[in-house]
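User: Fold this; tokens only.

Assistant: Input:
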Amino acid sequence: MTERRVEQRVEQVGDGLPLALRTAWWATAWLRGHVVTDLLLDAVIGDDATHVVGGLDALGLGQDAAESLLAGLARIRAEGATGFGVALPVEGDLVGLGGPPPFNAAALEAGEAVVVSGAWIGLVPVRVGAAVTWHAHRAERRQLPDIGEADRTLRRELPSAADALADLDVARWRPEVADRLMNLRHRPHVTPPPGVPSRCAELAARALQAAEIVDIALEDDGGAVSAYEISARRDALLPLDRAARHALVAAGSPEAWPDSH
């Protein structure tokens, strides 16, 4: 078993989307003229008090240490942005990241980031109460999971995880997990902005479903009473956790979308 923290979950808001994925989807829709500014801000900020962008001045972009979300995104757009994508790294699996090391380290600590293709700027969210600061970093080109492969892997890992958890008597220590696994057709509702391919929205919904199963199964160590049971449960969930994150990165990164221009 690797040392990475499977229990490290990305922050989720609203309809369950990771904050970085929600931001990547809506910022790309705004960038490409599919939604107006008010819709972008409503979707990204949600119930938070404020979102600001910090660190652009250190990259030689602007004079202010922190700017409003809209001002920061507009400045990034002027740098040649072509799309906003998501990264959901954990230790040992930096999916969605291409470097450099300072950006990778910040994204790994946060568990999520937005990568702006074209401008090659990375944005890492840091939350303090109801305020979020998106810290800007230089980013590099990255390799992304293939949509089709991510889809096939997730479809394969869900039943495999179900079998493994059944062997561990999941119903005894987490009946909620058994209920979710018996009802895989009931998925979280995901409403993407215009411009997101329906295939990507569907993939994101199934990935969120898988991530929820991992969350519930790992909660409070699942009632496990021995180190062996804890280790066995984590081993059973590692492939599903990885598949879910890779699927969300593919679904949330326009560079990976088919015919996305």
